[in-house]
Every structure is written in structure tokens, then in C-alpha cells.
Design a protein that fits this description.
- This protein is mostly helical.
- The chain has one domain.
- 85% of the residues lie in helices and 0% in strands.
- The protein contains 7 helices and no strands.
- The protein has helices at 3-31, 33-36, 42-50, 56-78, 85-116, 124-163, 167-203.
- Helix 1 packs antiparallel against helix 6 and helix 5 (85-116) packs antiparallel against helix 6.
- The longest helix is centred in the last third of the chain and has 40 residues, at 124-163.
- It is elongated, with a radius of gyration of 31 Å.
- The chain starts with a helix and ends with a helix.
- Residues 165-175 and 194-204 have low confidence and may be disordered.
């Protein structure tokens, strides 16, 4: 497999993963968060009862790992290309900072407090405070996902434009080939005429 083909595959995976991640966070913000954080601690208890078979933790960690790996791979593959280098590197850094490091430091401890610790462990006032902090920090993750998607998509478009062959260039090449063939035919005809003239003079 050529390096160009591999780069195309990795960039495609990065763009799709980043958009799916951002779309999931945006949908979660609109559909789930008003129900989960609307009236803590009662809304937190309802969320615990509802999200038993599955939840965001089943979707975002594997998708986030895929985006992180594809972003690192894309950075390595495009580092030698100045047109793409900083777009891809910026996308990778933004995602790793906002979606991974920030989540590990900020969100994971608060998730433990709200959804893992046994009910009644923390006071209602403390749970309201933690829920408010979680919602406020969520804006960082939402913005980071949007920026990552834009940067990755921009890099992909620049890559496609840089590796694709313009249609005009193909047409121009075909025209040059036709002109060359016509010139060769004319030259052959001229040489044939000269030879015939010489033969006629020799007979005389």
C-alpha cells in the first residue's frame, strides 16, 4: 500500500471519528443533559435508574481511543507535508487536550461522585455543586470537539486537493499528445514527398 493511500485512509478515519464524537457530545448536550442535571440530586438518581443497560460510557471511550490513535497516526504520516502538518497536529493536540486529558482530570472524578459512589454518600448541596461544575466544564469538551472536527476536515480537504489531478491538466495533456501525433504525421508526409521527388529526378 502506498503512503498516499495510507494517509487518505487514516485522514478519512480521523475526520469521521472526530465528527461522530462531536455529534455525540452535541446530541448528549441537547437530549440527555437537561434530564440528568436539570434538578440534582433527584435528577441524578433518575439517571442512575435509567442508564442501566448502557450509557455514554459505552460509546465515547472506544470512539475517543479511535480518534486519538488516528490523529497520532495522521500526524506522523503528514508531518513531512507543510500543507497538512499543522492542521493535523493541531487537531490531534486539541482532541487529546480537551477530550482526553481534560476529561481524565475534570470529568472522571465528578462522574465517580455523581454516578458511582453509593446514593446518600454526599450531601444534596455538594451534589448540586458538582453537577454545576460538570455542566460548566462540558462546554470545553463541546468546543474542543468542534475545533477538532474543523481542523481535521480542513486537513482532509487540503490533502485531497493536493493529491488529485485537475481535469484541465488531463485535457491539456491529451491535447499535447494529439498535437505531437499530428506533427509526426506531417513530418512523415513531408519526408515521403521529398523521397518521391528525388526518385523522379533520378529517372530523368
Amino acid at each position: 500500500m502506498s503512503r498516499t493511500r495510507l494517509t487518505w485512509i487514516v485522514l478519512t478515519a480521523l475526520v469521521w471519528g472526530a465528527i461522530l464524537s462531536f455529534g455525540g457530545v452535541a446530541a448528549e448536550t441537547v437530549m440527555l443533559y437537561p434530564n440528568i442535571f436539570g434538578d440534582p440530586p433527584e435528577s441524578l438518581d433518575r439517571a442512575r435508574e435509567f442508564m442501566v443497560r448502557g450509557g455514554p460510557s459505552d460509546y465515547f471511550p472506544p470512539l475517543g481511543a479511535a480518534v486519538a490513535l488516528s490523529s497520532v497516526a495522521a500526524t506522523v504520516l503528514t508531518w513531512g507535508d507543510r500543507r497538512l502538518r499543522w492542521w493535523v497536529a493541531a487537531a490531534a493536540c486539541t482532541f487529546l487536550a480537551c477530550e482526553f486529558l481534560f476529561s481524565a482530570v475534570f470529568f472522571w472524578p465528578r462522574n465517580e461522585i455523581m454516578f458511582v459512589d453509593p446514593a446518600g454518600t454526599h450531601s444534596a448541596e455538594y451534589l448540586r455543586q458538582v453537577a454545576g461544575e460538570f455542566v460548566a466544564g462540558h462546554r470545553v469538551r463541546l468546543a474542543g470537539g468542534a475545533v477538532t472536527s474543523v481542523l481535521a476536515f480542513t486537513a482532509f480537504v487540503r490533502f485531497v486537493r493536493g493529491t488529485g489531478r485537475p481535469a484541465g491538466g488531463v485535457a491539456a495533456g491529451a491535447g499535447s499528445a494529439r498535437a505531437g501525433a499530428d506533427g509526426a504525421a506531417e513530418g512523415s508526409t513531408a519526408e515521403s514527398g521529398t523521397a518521391e521527388t528525388g526518385a523522379a529526378e533520378a529517372v530523368r
